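User: I'm writing a tutorial on reading structure tokens. Could you give me a worked example: one chain, its sequence, then its tokens, then a sentence or two explaining what the tokens reveal?
Assistant: Sure. Here is the example chain.
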Amino acid sequence: MTPLRIGIVGYGFMGRAHSNAYKRLNDFFAVQHRPVLTAVCARDASKAQAFASNWGYERVETDWRRMVEAPDIDLIDIASPNDTHYEIVLAAAKAGKMILCEKPLAMNVRQAEEMTEAVEKAGVPNMVWFNYRRVPAVALARQVVDEGRIGKPFHYRATYLQDWTISPDLPQGGAALWRLDVNVAGSGVTGDLLAHSIDTAMWLNGPISRVTALTRTFIKERTHAITGAVQSVGIDDACMFLAEFANGSIGTFESTRYARGRKNFNTFELNGAAGSVYFDLEDPQYLSFFEYNQLQSGQKIESHLAGWRKIHVTNSEHPWMSHYWVPGTTIGYEHTFLNALADFVAAVESGKRVRPDFRDALETQRVCDAVLLSAQTGAWVDIQTAQAEA
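And here are its predicted structure tokens:
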């Protein structure tokens, strides 16, 4: 097997999720490359060493530039905070490395455009970790759409709700809470949560043409975890927006970290002339499907048999499931990263484009920026017009 030598930036939640995928890839997928955990890079050497020892990385770096330039690294995986993505990607592309990057791709569209141009000019394989595309039930929803079982789309609605930032005593910044620091995160729930919802929506229902949005910051000041100073909060705690899709359908998107009792409530529903699909990440092994037309005959389902169908997505014919267990047994959150990595490596070996790549993530970034602009101006924002004016 061909070694695929990994250099990862970051040792947090995403660093763990990605490392698990590298370690298990060859256990489940018959690809020609074998990941080698070569280096982990972080500013805190002691914590990075503990991470390296636990996961089996060969060495620790504290300067990402040194790791990017290292001849024994084939792939740079960016699992660090959002404000680090831009510089690392540009350097890694210049060095000719394969690049995997966490979402959102960048702090803003301008950065995302430069990053996308850099990787495409360098011709390096690249992917962004929008891992929810790799939930088998979500991929089945895409298959249902591709098979024409939804028909002409009318409505798309998405929610992404959490509750972990409600306390006013929660600080902002630092290694654990950088998502609350606008200078590091770029935005709040729009970039952190809705980026996932937007990527999934456009994958299932096509491009978004324009949006109008409302955001709220409920707690205006928080103590900074590093400096101890009380500072203004610049991120959005909640965001709601309306969208028009290029295919003529309309959508609603809602995200907040102030939904008491919701931990990772990520849902979508797509309604069309021929049927509907619904998914809930907190019950991820199921896809709910309502069929109005019988696909082959074009006839309506008899009324006494009509109703929502709850499909347990665990059969071998379901996406990726033939690599795992027997029907009726489920896989978990960690497998979404494994599925994504397997698709990436297979694409490298075949020379095909893997999705979502930087170009896809750039389009999601355009929508995120348009949402934030609309929230500031109170007006509808056309995605293409905003792109031209940026």
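What the tokens reveal: The chain has two domains: 2-129, 133-356+365-375. DSSP finds eleven helices and 17 strands in the chain.
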